[in-house]
Amino acid sequence: MATEQLFVSIVIILVAARVLGELFQRFRQPPLVGEILAGVIIGPSVLALVAPSADLRVLSDLAVFFLMFLAGLEMDPREIRKAGRSAIVISVIGFFAPLLAGTYVSFLFGLATMQALFMGLLLSITAVPVSAIVLIQFGILNSKLGNTVITAAVINDIMSLIFLSIILQMSAEGSSGKLNLGDLAMSGVKIAAFLGSIFLFDILFRKTANWLPSRVEPVFKKLQTKEAAFGILLITTITISLIAQEIGLHFVIGTFFSGLVVYKEMIGRQNFSRVYGIISAITFGFFAPIFFSLIGIEFNIQSLVNAIPLFIALLAVAIATKIAAGYAGAKLVGFTKDTSLAIGFLMNGRGMVELVIATIGFAAGILDLTLFSIAVAIGFVTSLLAPITSRPFVSSAKSKGSDAVAVVEESRNDQNTTFT
Fold it and tell me: Is there a smaller number of Cβ atoms within 10 Å at the N or the C end of the chain?
């Protein structure tokens, strides 16, 4: 019976998401906005046709996995490295400004120290999956702006996960609110080793590109099992994601980087195109609508009735500080006004990453139901606003012929796929 109910829920989600996604597409708005609103309508806030469940959250995690793998396949490690300095500046400012402001406002409303720190952390997040799919739908993921935003979002999420571990250590039973610097240092070493190994692999591949692909590609050509290349890449990606999760990073970071170091030269251009096509069809045909609809389904307006002033204050802080910090950081590293504003608005989406961290805080007893509901609502509103508010500035930058939104000609998927 549970399986039947799950399939009924999936059908309802896909129908609603497709209808509203198509409607918003016709009004020249990103389909994901319609998909989020579809979740609100069919969720507890309006029609109550679908309720959040453990099974749907598993599907949402799978959606994040494929979204991040696709984003990694779309991007080039060399462009990521070029965006590194700019992205670090943007991510640091974009992390600490909302963190400090959110913590201060939470204190003003009488929240306890750990609760205030946790709410500040939730406001500092930039969700990589939301940013990635918005950039894909705008057709600028593989541009200077796209690489900068994604790299900054990845760095931002790594910082948020480190800060999360600090809060959990300080709030753990019997910890006396003290931080174990040894454990924190060890976590930092593991994270640095993981990220360093990813880019070391990229550098080594570049140096062996003249002879290694010619030896590996024939192996893939000899595989007789249907879609064997897809299966091998999937196994590799899951393994890297699990390693990332084990060392203290969220699995989405591992998934993104595993997609980043997949080379069409290694497995063959034909195999790469086939794998990319499969992942793109699975992601946008099935998982993406479920992912964004679930953000709307998780939103329950009734739970905010007793905390509207705190919700409005934190939402205002979340939006204002993230946009201002993103804009200031982008201007500081030399982006134009339009591009800087686009970066600020794109960094404002929080979505599922905030929900994941909020769930951890709720399970640990740091957040109560009201604070958890506020976190979900902020994630919903900012995910809704990110594509709508950034679109005019992206369009303006395109119309002015800005180099920042010019797509790198040699795309790794060789398909020039644009989702507009």
Answer: N
Boundaries of domain holding 266: 2-405
329-356 exposure pattern, b = at least 16 Cβ within 10 A, e = fewer: bbbebebbebbbbbbbbbbbbbbbbbbb
Distance, first Cα to last Cα, the chain: 39
**Burial environment of residue 146 by CB neighbours within 10 A (0 to 12, 13 to 18, 19 or more):** buried
Q: How far apart are CA 420 and CA 183, in angstroms?
A: 45
Do the domain assignments include residue 207? yes
The answer as to whether 411 is a domain residue is: no
Query: Which pTM value belongs to this model?
Result: 0.73
Q: Walk along the chain (420 residues) in steps of 10 and give the mean pLDDT of each run.
A: 85 94 81 86 91 87 83 72 82 94 95 93 86 84 87 84 78 59 73 80 74 68 67 86 80 79 66 81 88 82 83 95 95 91 91 74 83 86 88 88 75 41
3-class DSSP state of 28 = coil
- Beta carbons of 101 and 120 less than 8 angstroms apart: yes
Q: Yes or no: say if 38 and 13 are a contact pair by the CB < 8 Å rule.
A: yes
Does residue 157 lie within any of the structural domains? yes
Assess if residue 414 is contained within a domain. no
DSSP assignment string, 126-192: --HHHHHHHHHHHT-TTBHHHHHHHHHHHHHHHHHHHHHHHHHHHHSTTSTT---HHHHHHHHHHHH
Task: Report the CATH number at residue 215.
Answer: 1.20.1530.20
Q: How far apart are CA 405 and CA 396, in angstroms?
A: 10
